[in-house]
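We give the entry.
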Amino acid sequence: MDYDRQQVTCPQGQVSAGWHGPYPTSSPTAAPLIVARFTKSQCRPCPAHTQCTSTADSARTVGFPPKELHDLQLRVLAEQQTPEWKTRYAVRSGVEGTVNEFAHGHGIRRCRYRGQEKAHIQHVLTAIAVNIERLSGLPPAEETLTSRRPTAFQHYLDQREIPRPKSWRTLGT
C-alpha cells in the first residue's frame, strides 16, 4: 500500500486502478475504510487469479484502514511481541479464562431468578461451587505438597513487592 501515491500493488506486480475513500463503515464504532480496485483486464489474465478473487466480474477489491490507523496497528502489534507486554497480558488472560469458564461451563449469562438480589446470590453460589470443584482436585493438606510454579497473579504481586495473602490452608497453623 502506497498511501502517498494512493495505489496498491498486488503480489503479482499489478497496480490498482482506483483508490476511493475513506468511507464510513456501517458500524459507528468501526474505523473508516479505504477501498482500492483492480480492473478485469488486470485480474483475468493473472496466473494467481483463482487464489486472489472469486467475484463474478473477475476484479479484485481491497479494503484497508487509513494510514494513521494502519501505522497505529503496526506499532501496537510490535509492542505485543515484547516480553513486558506478554507478562502484563498473562494476568489478564488468567482472568479471562475464569470468566470464560463461568460463562460457558456454568451458564452464568442466564440467571434462573429475577431480581438483582437473587441473581447476586446465584453468582456467589456458583463461585463457591467452582472453588470447591477446583479445590477437590488438590491433594489433602496432610500430604507433603509439591511446590507449584507461581501464577501470573503471584508474579504481578512479586514485581510490585506486594505481599501475597496467606493460603487458607496455613491460617490455622
Observations:
- The mean pLDDT is 81.
- The helical segments are 40-43, 49-52, 67-79, 83-105, 116-136, 152-159.
- The first strand starts at residue 18 and ends at 23.
- Strands lie at 18-23, 33-37, 61-64.
